[in-house]
Design brief:
Bound molecules: adenosine-5'-diphosphate, zinc ion
Shape: globular
CATH topology of the largest domain: Rossmann fold
Largest sheet: 8 strands, mixed
Number of strands: 33
CATH class of the largest domain: Alpha Beta
CATH superfamily of the largest domain: P-loop containing nucleotide triphosphate hydrolases
Number of domains: 6
Radius of gyration: 29 Å
Strand order of the largest sheet: 13-14-12-15-16-11-18-17
Amino acid sequence: MAYAGVVLDIPTRALDQAFHYLVPDEIEPDVHIGSTVLVSFSRRLAVGYVTSLSREIPEGLDPSKLKPIERVLADPAFDEQAAQLAEWIAREYAAPLSESIRLFLPPGQSVRVRKATEDGPWELEESSAGPVDDRWASLTEEGRSFEPKRNSSRQRALVSALSSGPVRMAELSAMIPGAASVVSALEKRGVVEIVRRRRIRGSEQTTLSSATAARPEALTQGQGNALAAIGQAGPGEVVLVDGVTGSGKTEVYLAAIERVLEQGRSALVLVPEISLTAQTVGRFRSRFGERVAVLHSRLSVGERFDQWDMARTGDASVVVGARSALFAPLSNLGIIIIDEEHEGSYKQDQSPRYHARDVAAKLASLRGCPLVLGSATPSLESLVRCREGSHRGVAWHRVEMPERPGNAVLPHVQVVDMTRQFALGNRSIFSKPLVEGIERVLERREKAVLMLNRRGFASFLMCRECGCVPECPHCSTALTYHERTHSLACHTCGSSWPVRAYPDPTTCCPNCGSRFLAQFGVGTQRVEDELAMLVGDRATIVRMDADTTRGKGAHQRLLEEFDAAECAILVGTQMIAKGLDFPEVTLVGVVNADTTLKLPDFRAAERTHDLLEQVAGRAGRGEVPGEVIVQTYWASHPAIRSVEAHERSLFLEAEVSDRREAYYPPFSRLGNIICWGRSLGEVTRVLDEVARLVRERVGEQEGWRVLGPADCLKARVKDQYRRHLLVKAPPAADLGSLLGACAREVDKPRGVSLAVDIDPHDMM
Ligand code: ADP
Ligand code: ZN
Ligand code: ZN
């Protein structure tokens, strides 16, 4: 007899432990760690996942009281170490165990039990995005000597199409009109046969000319050092590749992966969602071909399933993906790589609210492989861990790549003080130096990138008479102004109003009734329009922002347009700052560098610095040196001065001492408990109770501070009131266990939600 630990998937209950069941002999061969099973639990049926198996009776349990597993519902999706990782995630991030296990399940394949009617029986509800087959036609043995009729052009076309191997029916039909009927006629005569073959969705090849990874003749010294450090890293150790933009970090990853593949092991590469473009994927595909599986959220469920399954079957030994690729079922993992490790998008903003960097570190130690982090602007967290030499008992090493390969040099950066421009009478979005820079690009027929910092104070309407900025009546978010439709929209809930109708049809300013609402901040459309007037038909203008990249493949199409143009200017938001590698780009302009500096967030300066450094890095990646022009109203800020001087320490020293003084990460750990609901009274009561419990447990422990409760910065969203409690703890504290226990302990009335966010990245 065997005993299984099973984590139950019951949505209404956040159960935080596995329960034990008997494994009946008849089904024992099918029960493995990772199997989905059906069990009974307090007089209902429930779906569960097997997380442990043993032959011995678990201590303290009476075998006669254990119930049997009823059925096996699905093949194993994860192994023992993955189960350990799921448990770690649940504890570390105060998430329900079933939610962290679901991270490991095949995409689009879920089983639930539910009742169709109140007192009806429990029923299984399966949604499956399982494999699909294609029909392929091929010539049979006899078919090879078949002579098509002279007068049948379709037969001849078909036989010649098949003469060099099987062809998919869909393609045959596209090539030869009426192919299906010819095939079925020839099938009857034994000339052609139809076979089914699994189709792997989501592996389309890219067409970007720049998306290749030709092997360089020699590695730079920095690349050699980085590879050596990776080679020497012991199991679970972390190597931070701190390499300036364009220093060739991708080549380091490719070479390190090659070594791992030679040992018969597999590799996992995480890149930020936004840079999972044709260009990045193409570089990995061009080096490793069909062994690469790609996982990101823009794939359909079927595509994601097939790519995931390639990892499971071992057809893929390299997985490139966004943060959720961490949970791909690769066996024999030899290396984990996280590119652009400083990116905020590695933090998941829904439960389980994990940070991919920390989960990867845990995964690396469970699998006994190194973790490689790469960035031109490493996070303060990683820099401090390397400075201290270790974190949570494993060694962290930093290796620098200070130079670009060949003749490429870092671009010259010029900071333009916009208050001076204003005083000189320049009312345009573009300063004089930026206009001159654009003119030089046009003359030389090269390419430019103009970035508009949209997060923070985007395009708002401000009352000229009283200074009020209209807010959404449902959320406390400033409304942004959309020029083409002359409307105000809320980016939190999506509501929008024609300008004249806000908040009622007769007045404009909700505060004083003035009609003089003026635009404050600009949008990408406005930049595009002014740019069009400046350049006329001398260059192609490509705009890339949330609006133009909405459709599937839009992102790639716009980049291809930019790639193909002879002389072009790419205008866009933050999304163009990262990962692009176009050697013809010789000018990068930042239209408004400082808007993100004003955000009420302790990472505001770090994010601004990273963004400027990254976007500056798009210039001068080829033979021609590049220049960068940064427009700002706050030229003296260390985040801007350090980019101007290519001197990170200017920013770092100021920032590190600010953080240490204010007891913010990486010198402390944060936990944020958010409570929301329609009734402010109930929200307040629930969170006050949580706060009481937290304070009780924290007691007098050194380094712990409990702040609040207080209203969130966005105090109302979609008519729900939001309050939060912030907890600071020492960097190594087990914050998740403590806050998770408190959150589970309070009674929440219906309509009140509570979330625990450990190491939060968005505290608004
Ligand atoms: P990063 O990721 O560090 O910003 P990339 O990996 O995009 O930099 O590399 C920048 C450019 O340098 C790419 O075009 C790449 O092909 C090229 N490159 C990388 N390594 C070498 C090398 N050793 N010799 C010559 N060119 C290289
Ligand atoms: Zn007003
Ligand atoms: Zn709203």
